[in-house]
Amino acid sequence: MLKAVFWGFHGVIINDDDIHPQLIAQLLLSENLRFNLEEYQEMYLGRSDRARLTAILQTRGRFVRDDYLDGLLRKKAEGYGEWLRSQPKLALYAGVDDLLYRIRSKQYVTAIVTGAQRADVEQVLTAAKLTDQFSLVVSASDMPVAASKPAPDSYLAAIDQLNLLNPELALTPQNCLAIESCFAGVEAAKAANIPVVGVAQIYPYHMMQRCATWAVDYLNEIDFDWIAPRYERGSNAATMEEKPAV
């Protein structure tokens, strides 16, 4: 049965995709390196800051120490915080509050599993007063570069940690649902054997439909009354049966 709902962060909870390439471009400029937006969108969208910065620097012949990379990531987090504070209104996607309410009403455990830095997540959750809505956050700050999405490690780590917090939960991937908006996130969830709803908030619906278990245009279209029975029919039902929209 469905027991837990995992959220991505950038592109799922907050509409902030435009600021990240700008911040990375600024970091590269400070390193006397050139930023390529097409390269970023094609190769690095949906990956963690640490993974994409490491890859971008290496393609430009820069191999930096972990402590140096940590400094770059701190600068980016500071820039992200400045951007957040400059916004007249927090750019949460429509339907976040409603979906959290419906998750609580179903008594599902909920967590954030993201390639975002923990500092970014904490700043947004604090500003949105959503800190107490999630049982757990597994961020890029908690995982090595090799475990970044599209690797399944962060999802598997979330399951392990939730089981440590509540052994009676006995959570398995077949009890979970992921909500993702990028290909790397969808791939990570599916590699962990977790059914995934692709929400078309970054890519068009037809592209999400091709890669996710199910697809929706908006968060408020996620229908647990339709999804939950697919889990109750058997451990493989959720991944075997697809529907054009949930």
From TrEMBL:
Q: Which InterPro entries match?
A: Beta-PGM-like, HAD-like_sf, HAD_sf, PGP-like_dom2
What this protein needs as a cofactor is:
Mg(2+)
Please give one Gene Ontology molecular function term for this protein: metal ion binding
Q: Which Gene3D superfamilies match?
A: HAD superfamily/HAD-like, Putative phosphatase, domain 2
Return the Pfam families for the record.
Answer: Hydrolase
Q: Would the keyword Magnesium turn up in this protein's UniProt record?
A: yes
Alphabetic keyword roster? Magnesium, Metal-binding
Task: Identify its protein family.
Answer: Belongs to the HAD-like hydrolase superfamily. CbbY/CbbZ/Gph/YieH family.
Q: Which PANTHER family match?
A: 6-PHOSPHOGLUCONATE PHOSPHATASE, SLL1138 PROTEIN
Specify the protein name: HAD family phosphatase
